Amino acid sequence: MSLVLKRYYSIYDTADVSKAINGLDISIGDKPYEIVDYNYDGIELWNVFFDVIYKNKGTKWLLMVEPLVERISKEYDIPMPKIFCFRAYSC
Length: 91
What we know:
Distance between the termini: 18 Å
Number of helices: 4
Number of domains: 1
Structural class: mainly alpha
Radius of gyration: 12 Å
Strand content: 5-15%
Largest sheet: 2 strands, antiparallel
Helix content: 40-55%
Shape: globular
């Protein structure tokens, strides 16, 4: 998840990313892309994170990180977040 946050921070300014993740029950560390605490289990965070991004910023923000999310999903053998199931992924 921190890799995705890092990507967002490299594309958008800090204020936009803060608005995008508003509503998530997470704590960000000293580095702006480091999630240090959260109140979800792993897969739940994986799904809720992208649901909140979509709700706050829309499809464009999902599409900006879709290749990275797909790579992480394959590398760690975890399903794509459910919000991406509108595309050609098996979910």
